[in-house]
Amino acid sequence: MVKNLRVAVVGCGARAQTAHLPYLKKNKRVEIVTMCDKDEAKLAALKDRYKPDRIVTTFSKILKDDTIDAVVVTTPTYLHHPMVLAALDYGKHVFVEIPVAVDTTQVKEMISKSKRVKRVLAAAHDVHFRPDSILLRQLIERKEVGDITYAKTGWLRSAQKWNMTGARLESLTKGGGAFMTLGTALLDLALFITGERTPRSVSGMAFKRDSKLAAEDSAVAQIRFTDDTVLVIEVSWTLHQPRDLLYLNVYGTKGAALFNPLEIHKEMFSRLVNVAPSINKKSCYPTSYQGQTNAFVAAALEETPFPVPLTDSLLLTRICDAFYRSVAEKKEVVLRK
Description:
Blueprint lengths: L4 E6 L3 H13 L3 E7 L3 H11 L3 E3 L2 H5 L6 E4 L3 H13 L3 E4 L7 H14 L3 E3 L7 H11 L6 E11 L7 H9 L3 H17 L4 E9 L10 E8 L4 E10 L5 E8 L2 E5 L3 E6 L2 E4 L9 H17 L9 H20 L3 E2 L3
Parallel strand pairs: 1-2, 1-4, 2-3, 4-5, 5-6, 7-10
Antiparallel strand pairs: 7-11, 8-9, 8-15, 9-10, 11-12, 12-13, 13-14
Helix pairs in contact: 1-9, 4-5, 5-10, 6-8, 8-10
C-alpha cells in the first residue's frame, strides 16, 4: 500500500479546473505529478498553480510512467473508453467523468476490465456527495411530500450565452449530444434524489439546429418506472431564452420538492408552506467535489470501497442507449439489461 497517491489528470479543461484539480490539491495524501492536455498554453498556465512534476501533451507518456498510481479522466466522452481501458491495462486506478462512455457495451467492458486487473474504477457522481441533494433525498424518503407521482427536470442553456465552440462543438460533431452530455447529469441527480426506482421504458425526441451535426443540440425524454411514476427531462445547448435554467421538481401526493433552490412545499393551514431547512448553497459544490475526490483516494489506497457502485453509472448509460433507440425508431423503448 502506498502512503500517498500519485495522480495524473488527463484533460485539463473547465471541468478539471473546477471539480478536480483544486480538490486533488487539497487532499494531503495526493500528489498531482502529471497534467495532460493537447493545449500547451493551458498546461503552462495551470503548471504555475498546481506545480505538477511534469506536463505532457501525449497520453501514452502517462501510461508508461510506472510512478503514476491513478489517472483522472476528464476528456470528451468518446475518448473515455479507450483511455480508461489503457490506463487499467497499465495498472492505474481510474476516476472518470460521467457519462462514463458512449454506450452500455463500452461501460460493461470497462467494468469487466477493472475487475480483471484488480484496479479501482470510479465515476464522478458528485451529486451523491452534495449536502442539498442528500438532504432532499432524505426528506423524500421520509414522505415529506407523500408518495411521488412524477418529476421533471431540465438543463436549458441560453443560445446568447453558450456558443457552439470548444468541447461542446466537439461533442456535437463526434457524437454524444445534449441528452448524453447534459441529460446524464440530470438523470444522476433525479435517480439519486427520488430513491430506489427501476426504470422500465424511455420515450425520446431529439432536435438539431444544423442537420450537419452528428448529434442533437436539444432533446426531450420521458422515463417510465416500474412503480408507474414518470420522469420528464428537457435539455438544450441552444435555447432562445435570455438566461440559463437548471431545475428539478418532484411532485407527490402531499406536496412538492424543488431543487435549485431547495424547497419543500406542503399544504398547511389551507396554503402552501415551504418547510425545507436552510442550507448553505455556496458550500454544496465544494463539499461534493471534495467528497468524491476523498472517496476515490481512499478507495485507491485500499481503505474503503468507493461508495457509488458502477451499476449506477451503467444504469445511466442504459437509459441513454434507450433514449437514442427511441429517437431512431420513433417509439417508446423498453429498457434492455
